[in-house]
Design a protein that fits this description.
- This protein has six helices and no strands.
- Helices cover about 60% and strands about 0% of the residues.
Amino acid sequence: MAKTPLPYRHLGGNLARLRQERGITQGTVAEILDVSLRMVQQVESGQKAFSLPRLARLAAFLKVTFDALLAGMVEAEKGVPELARRTSTLVGKRKPRSSIRP
């Protein structure tokens, strides 16, 4: 059996946890994403991963960010502003290019 790609390694456990916290069945997830129940079970067990469009639909349905699905950052409200702060700090430190070459 092939391993799930690294960016998706936490997806299955996070999906199962988020789904259960919300009282949502695997069957409901399958219907929302237009996949089989078996596919949802395989994702939750780490055997497969959803496509990016399906992940986007799933995140919207669960009302979480991609981070919550992929990395387990469940408190997305706290994580997104922190990420924005870090990003703006890094962008502010960048030196502007003096000229752009063709």
